[in-house]
Amino acid sequence: MPGSPVLVGPFSGGLNTYSEPTQIADTEAVELFNFDIDLDGSLVSRPPLVTMPSNAGPGCNVVGIFTTSTGTNYVILIDTANNLKAYDVTSGSAVYTIATNIQCLITVQYLNKLWVVATPNSANPGGSWDPVGGFTAIAGMARGNSAAIYQERLFISAGPQSTNPARINFSGPANFGSWTPGTDFFDVNNGDGQAIIRIASFGGRIGIYKTRSTYTFAYDASPTKGKSELVAANIGIASQYCYAEFEGNIYILFGNVLYAINNWNWTPVNIKVPFVVYNFKARATSNDFSVSIVGNRLICRYYDNFYVYNLRTQAFSIWRFTTADYAPNAFFRYPTIDPIENTYFYVAGNYDNAKISWYRITDTPLSSTPETFTVSIVTKTYDYKVPYTFKRMFWWGADILSKTPVTYVVHPTVYNIPIKWSQISNGTTKWSQLQTWAKPLNISIDVTDSTDSSNPSGTRTFVKLLKGLRFRQVSFKVSSTVNGTLATGPLKLFSLTAVTSSKALVSKKIS
After folding, report:
1. Is residue 273 a part of any domain in this protein?
2. Dist. CA 148–CA 161, nearest whole Å
3. Are 142 and 128 in contact (CB under 8 A)?
């Protein structure tokens, strides 16, 4: 057999968009769409997204989960018409209206009641609710954008809409219906030009995340005698949805940087994957950023871009919902296991206010057809550690498990490609479009092949692609379209193999 086989992958390093394509690690990829990175380094197509009933109202957002004393679970939703609703996903019951003409960004559960926190500009106040007694408005309840339960009290941050954006009000002990706004509050570095965006109880204290700084707060006997402490002078949080906890770590998004916080030490997570706006939809949005947990993944939404960080493999990929034009906001885990799929699922609101659906995602292929999407990977550009020679590729192939047709592309990177005058004087090419005399046009010489390696039994196969070519540098692309069901997935790519040998040295000054 001519040439030597060279393994490409596994891709345990995930996505790397920071480095130049020839400089990234062999285990990393230039593009990685709609894949998860498995523990063995293989790539697995992501789980599908399912739309939920549209009768929840337009721009429906999830603001909490509520579990009754009898074990019934409700997803708490609010729409752009300021209707607060509850939905039992398991039974598939109709949406139940909790309150109307109320604005709310967060709810909490305590003493078997749902406590609704109204925003400062809400027409009606917050209050408490349970399915039996209904909704009880509490006129004196503090208003705000975020809330946390700490030492049997409810703490509510007033938020950017308030006249006191650095203020936190707190309830009476073990009584969330008792509020004394004249005395039961404290301010966190008031007058610094920053609003409190999010508060959360963690590690025996309250984390207070402002626009550009972070504090903690704790007390022994009384909140009025508590102390706030600055823990990050130049790092805040992007929005109230940009907070998630996983196994003792906190994850927040500030600007376009994702941070992991352990013992109040900040570590940037996405150094190799800077968050950028590569895809932006024209839509009316409730917010532009969110961070949430789905299984062992951190879903980071930066505008309309979904960066997915696998918390086990510590590698990134990108999810795209462009096929169905979905717009999920932060995800919440539903408390019980789906009896049909036998695993936990997650629900999310819709950050596009023009849409009337909300979403659920289950970490497994489904029996029905929920969503069609394309999975793809583009590898690094390889010169096989011999940049000064041309190489000959005899064939290449993929170690893959696929139930759908797959497209394979090998892309040689060539600086000089012979150009004919007919390609320039074709009546459509303008002088301003030409580049240099050595390289007047950008012309792709991709070699594409496709095969239907479908096997309903899900057998791992090796696909051999008999496409020979001469190259100095080369990259590979593999893509397929799946619909999130057992009939088409999960697609799993283990590695690629290329059989090559060195040929002549480069002859031009620039090749």
Report:
1. yes
2. 18
3. no
Note whether 144 and 102 are within 8 A (CB).
Answer: no
Taking the C-alpha atoms of residue 242 and residue 254, their distance in angstroms, rounded to an integer, is 8
Please provide residue 130's backbone torsions phi and psi, each rounded to the nearest 5 degrees.
Answer: -145, 155
CA dihedral 501, 503, 507, 510 (to 10 degrees): -10
pLDDT digits (tens, 9 = 90+) for 85-133: 999 887 776 678 999 999 999 999 999 999 999 999 999 999 999 999 9
Q: What is the predicted pLDDT for the residue at 511?
A: 43
Rg (alpha carbons) of the chain, rounded to whole number: 27
Q: Is residue 321 part of a domain?
A: yes
How far apart, in whole angstroms, are the C-alpha atoms of residue 204 and residue 511?
Answer: 61
Domain that holds residue 310: 49-364
Contact 469/447 with Cβ under 8 angstroms?
A: yes
Instruction: With respect to residue 370, please indicate whether it lies within any of the assigned structural domains.
Output: no
What size, in residues, is the chain?
A: 511
pLDDT digits (tens, 9 = 90+) for 245-257: 999 999 999 999 9
Q: Is 424 helix (H, G, I), strand (E, B) or coil?
A: helix
- Whether the bond into 181 is cis, omega within 30 of 0: no
- Clarify whether residues 205 and 335 are in a common domain: yes
- What stretch of H or E contains 422? helix 421-424
Nearest to 409 by CA among 455, 376, 367: 376
Residue 190: exposure state from Cβ atoms within 10 A (0-12, 13-18, ≥19): exposed
**Shared-domain flag, residues 105 and 186:** yes
